[in-house]
Amino acid sequence: MNPIDCGVGQPRSHELSHMGFLQFIFNLLNGGINDGNESSQSSQSSQPSHSQAPNPCESGCGRMTQWSGHSMCKTCFHAINFTPRPVSASRMSAYNSIIHRLDASGLSEAEFRGKIGESYLKDMGSETIEALVTSATLRKVMGWD
Q1: pLDDT by position in tens, the chain (length 145)
Q2: CA-wise closest residue to 144 among 96, 97, 112
Q3: Does 78 share its domain with 95?
Q4: What is the phi/psi pair of residue 89, to 5°?
Q5: What is the SS3 assignment for 15?
Q6: Is 46 within a domain?
Q7: What is the DSSP string of 96-109?
Q8: Per the domain annotation, does 45 fall within a domain?
Q9: Any residues with CB less than 8 A from the CB of 64 and at least 6 apart, and which?
Q10: Does one domain contain both 62 and 95?
Q11: Which residue from 84, 136, 138 is spatially nearest to 108, judged by alpha carbons?
């Protein structure tokens, strides 16, 4: 079979034989060989399309949507569609152990902070204690939220 008579997947020599050498160079410099049937913009269609005029998020947060076809911003979309992972048994055991060692079951937040100040945990540092007291898991276990 002659390379000139081949269809798709022909070698570059086929392209050179159907057009002039200068046209071949010009097409290479402008994004590849193009037989005129497809535009050089076809590579842009694989990219996600931003909407020309972003719409406000339908949840009322004040942010704008960034992608066409979406009615919510990314933050609100994730908040609604992705639930937080459940707390693992080992992490729950660690929180329960701290509460048990402090004898802090049923205390208010202020009383709990006071117990930490009196205990072996006082040397953890204020940032670590703050992270412990403000953690969602401890607040849930203690019934503060």
Answers
A1: 455 555 555 555 555 555 567 777 777 777 665 555 444 444 444 444 544 567 788 888 888 887 777 788 888 888 888 877 788 899 899 999 999 989 998 999 999 999 988 888 888 888 888 989 999 889 988 988 7
A2: 112
A3: no
A4: -65, -40
A5: helix
A6: no
A7: HHHHHHHT-TT--H
A8: no
A9: 54, 55, 56, 57, 73
A10: no
A11: 138
